[in-house]
Write a structure and sequence with these properties.
Layout: H1 3-26, E1 28-33, H2 36-54, E2 57-62, H3 65-74, E3 83-86, H4 90-96, E4 129-140, E5 164-166, H5 171-183, H6 192-203, E6 207-209, H7 212-221, E7 226-230, H8 231-239, E8 244-247, E9 253-262, H9 269-279, H10 282-292, H11 305-308, H12 315-318, E10 321-322, H13 326-345
Parallel strand pairs: 1-2, 5-6, 9-10
Antiparallel strand pairs: 3-9, 4-7, 4-8, 4-9
Helix pairs in contact: 2-9, 2-10, 5-6, 6-13
Protein name: Putative spermidine/putrescine transport system substrate-binding protein
InterPro entries: SBP
GO molecular function, one term: thiamine binding
Length: about 350
């Protein structure tokens, strides 16, 4: 065999290997998910159907929003994620910093069916919201003398020591507090009305917890009646055998948007867009609602009555969703938490 022929064969082999590696890379996506029950639902509702439909493989990095965003920032020049999921508004900052790529809505077959708020800035790089954690009033349907219907019901002295508040270091606790602040006349430039209300509630016997399992403990062991918290946690309490229900406050429902975002400077754009498209499909969103009681953002989702009762379901219900500006929350978080700590310590 001549050296020239050997060189040709080696060259062809190298090209074949390179092409094979590229193909393998093209059929693999790296995403983050949030661990625990959420990640299990993610696999069932989105990842499994995506792998089955495309033949691709999804690599999961378990990371909550803040940690995933920190990784994305640190890896700006060579990001590991193809698709990144957030629940704390990080997509707004990520898009502004060029870490996320704009999305052409025409490339998503399900985008047209999303509520407008869920696709408001695709062209700016903010990925679509594929689920909503709705914050309202979780209550014990057997012990509470009446079903709450308003955020102002939290101030009813009859609830008093049967009320559970969540520390604002908890994301859901923060949103519940900001809603209470709003109905008391405050806004994101003035949280004093909310702090005054919290002081009054604590003086009336309300307890403050920091984590969701403590809410379950209060409902199970300490005669709690009401807690401002997320719709999915009412479902968690029921699964634990507690008679918990969820209701939206008449003044509005704070919303934590769960978004799926296209990472900039990655080679698998078409495959990543397919993953995002499946995430916003009616089937995937119905699956999340059934598994975890998250509010769907696709108008074509159909839910069983018992599931619909636990979420903000349908065009009329989602009109009541309120998104407090994530940038304002992040900018003020440290100061607000400090003010909160002083209030509950008095």
């Amino acid at each position: 065999m001549t050296s020239a022929f050997k060189t040709t064969i080696l060259g062809v082999s190298a090209i074949a290997l390179t092409a094979g590696a590229a193909l393998a890379q093209d059929k693999t996506l790296t995403i983050n998910s949030f661990g625990g029950a959420y990640e299990e639902a993610h696999k069932k509702c989105v990842i499994g159907p995506f792998e089955q439909e495309t033949g691709a493989k999804v690599q999961i990095v378990t990371a909550y929003s803040a940690d995933a965003f920190a990784q994305l920032r640190a890896q700006k020049e060579a990001p590991q994620f193809d698709v990144i999921n957030f629940s704390g508004g990080q997509e707004i900052v990520g898009a502004a910093e060029g870490l996320l790529a704009p999305i052409d809505a025409a490339k998503l077959t399900n985008a047209a069916d999303l509520y407008d708020f869920a696709k408001a800035n695709l062209a700016g790089g903010e990925g679509p919201a594929y689920s909503i954690a709705a914050i309202g009033l979780v209550y014990n349907s057997e012990k509470s003398p009446k079903a709450p219907s308003s955020w102002k019901d939290l101030l009813d002295p009859a609830i008093g020591e049967h009320l559970v508040l969540t520390d604002i270091s908890n994301g859901y606790g923060m949103l519940g507090f900001l809603m209470l602040n709003q109905v008391e006349g405050g806004d994101l430039t003035n949280i004093q009305p909310g702090l005054d209300a919290v002081k009054k509630l604590i003086d009336g016997g309300a307890v403050v917890v920091s984590k969701s399992p403590e809410i379950q403990q209060e409902f199970a062991q300490n005669d709690a009646w009401v807690a401002p918290y997320a719709s999915d946690y009412a479902f968690t309490l029921r699964k634990a055998g507690l008679p918990a229900k969820f209701v939206q406050g008449t003044e509005g429902t704070p919303a934590s948007y769960i978004t799926t975002n296209l990472v900039a400077n990655r080679p698998n754009t078409d495959l990543a867009l397919k993953f995002i498209d499946i995430s916003i499909s009616p089937a995937a969103q119905a699956c999340f609602a059934e598994a975890l009681r998250y509010t769907p953002t696709n108008a074509k989702v159909e839910l069983a009555p018992e599931v619909a009762a636990d979420v903000a379901y349908g065009a009329d219900s989602v009109k009541g969703l309120i998104r407090f500006d994530p940038k304002a929350i992040e900018a003020n978080r440290a100061a607000w938490v400090e003010a909160w700590k002083k209030t509950i310590a008095q």
